[in-house]
Amino acid sequence: MTEIEGTVNGHRDGHGFVQRDDGEPDLYLSPQEMRAVLHRDRVRARILRFDRKGRPEGRVVDIIERRKTPIIGRLLHEGGSWIVAPEDKRYGQDILIPKNAAANARAGQVVSVELTEPPSMYSQPVGRVAEVLGEIDDPGMEIEIAVRKYEVPHRFSPEALAQAAALPDKLRAADLKHRVDLRDVPLVTIDGEDARDFDDAVYCEPHVQGKGKKASKGWRLLVAIADVSHYVKPGEALDDDAFERATSVYFPRRVIPMLPEKLSNGLCSLNPEVDRLSMVCDMLVSAEGEVTAYQFYPAVICSHARLTYTEVAAALLNSRGPEATRRAALMPQLLDLLDVYRALLKARAQRGAVDFETTETQIVCDDNGRIEKIVPRTRTEAHRLIEEAMLAANVCAADFIAGAEHASLYRVHEGPTPEKRQTLQNYLRALGLGLSVSDDPKPGEFQAIAAATKDRPDAQQIHTMLLRSMQQAIYTPANSGHFGLAYQAYTHFTSPIRRYPDLLVHRVIKAILQSRRYHLSTGELVGAPVRKGGKPPRGQAAELERWEQVGAHCSANERRADEASRDVEAWLKCRYMRERLGEEYSGTVSAVTTFGVFVTLDALYVEGLVHITELGSEYFRFDEARQELRGERSGQRYAVGARVRVQVSRVDLDGRRIDFRMVREGESDRLLAKGRPTGKERLAPLERVEAEDRVQKRATKAAKARQSPSGRTGAGKAKSKTSPRQDAASGKTSSRRKATRRR
């Protein structure tokens, strides 16, 4: 009967969980318990029992805090009453809207609702319409829904906007003090075609290290990063808004920036042919790809060109082509960048860093914000050379901070948990590969398995399992290294325009350069840095706790941004596939679960679910070790990487779900010969069996009725009991759900 406190996380199926503050396993709440609470409420709950697997189940005994943020949903008119069906299905309950609280909104519109009465065990929540967002089909509506659904801050405070407007448009003489002048160095930015903010600029030149016989060739690599910390000061309105957002959020055709546009696209962006303030990581790289020396310093630069990945890749591929000719003055340093990248890549392989080749996609939208096509995003050597340069700068930043023993945020990626490691070992053992991971796995073991299996037909399946066994990267002041990249210390330094942790790292580096310490709680530079073995300053425990809190906040907001972006992409893909109902495509099984398989279409790069009932009339058992579904009678297997052909059978726009059905060999020809499937052929296998059973029962009852003395009456009763309307229904369906299906 232990009592715990935590946050309610609702589930779209009606039940929920209490995410405990003490970090222990979540507490299950039944649908009955969820009637009195809503998703994101803070509660005190009591553990009542444990299920067969040892998972706790409980009851809410007190509601500590009600979530006060508005709820987004569709306004519907049913049976004379107005209700709002929440867009986030985790809320689980419709919200009643009094007639005088609809704010002139029309049925079907997307609205924002504020609760006026919370739910109870015996009543629904009541609210009022606070904002009318518009029609569901309005361009960009899916983004408006997502930013509110995931509570993404999307409006800057008036104070932050006023502060940004007061900043100068150009650099002043005072801004250049105590900075290295690198305006004559031909630094360039290399980004995507659609990039608008430019965090980083790079330059490379050959460099000989040592003298005489000990001399060795290498490179000098400069990575200049926008000096956002010069303009965004601790405790000011701009900093408060940036901390609240913690990251920029990227959607197709729109960005919710961390900083106002005057900074993100103007004063801080390293635009070409204009002077900009920057923090520079100046590195010496050996021929073996080892960074042998580095230094950080504030500088003023002038980007000599804004290059794109496409044109740099083309110029490097053909040094006499049109792109190379047009950028002839920059070609020497681009070729040096290519050489230093290859050296860094060689060092990466020797470290044993994990490097899986995955297919990334890009959504191309039309003028109305709808998907025009989905295309694979090709990674060229231009992408990779910038990536390696940024990795090198980030590692130097982490090493610099760790050497000064200054508190900061590291980007930590730990190895597999014991449970995930055991699951991976069982999987590899079941495949009979003769490969495994040790009890204390190293990144090189994962990379060795990936390299050994890259030519196998099930390589994608194996690589997916390797990826899933790893933990999620987080921000924390406790330096535990980066498992995937095989670094002992790693941080984020290269994107302060769009990531708050990078901005904090810049402040820490500046403090160390001034022989000071950056105090996170006050934002002040205090004292001198603690030397190794020296006495730690007072309040260090409280300061580290504050860094922990900030790291957790940034990690959570990063996940929130990812969820919001995925939600918008899922909505767009559902809208895209709704026009392709009934069409057939080839695809690859991308995931296997107890309830079915997920298939990614080859041509469209869209993922959908084939429910287990669509796999056949036999019973399919989930093999966790092999990550596959296997039919008990036929032995038919469905595993990650399997090639299948599917038909688009259903699209649920509200649930962000696409359903497929398997197309058997020869079934397409049969359906084409008979025309479009109708009646029983349109039904799922289980429904088809039930329909045939009902037909048989009706025929039997009708025959018995004809044989009975009151045949006419009996036949009439039989027909009434099994009317087509009742046959088609599996229970009562609310008018709202019917309306949803019609839409």
From TrEMBL:
Domain S1 motif as annotated: residue spans: 582-663
Keyword NADP tagged: no
Chain coiled-coil ranges: none
Feature: compositional bias, Basic residues: 734-743
Disordered: annotated segments: 1-25, 673-743
Alphabetical keyword list: Cytoplasm, Exonuclease, Hydrolase, Nuclease, RNA-binding
A single GO molecular function term of this UniProt record: RNA binding
PANTHER family: DIS3-LIKE EXONUCLEASE 2, RIBONUCLEASE
Name of the molecule in the record: Ribonuclease R
UniProt source species: Ideonella alba
The encoding gene: rnr
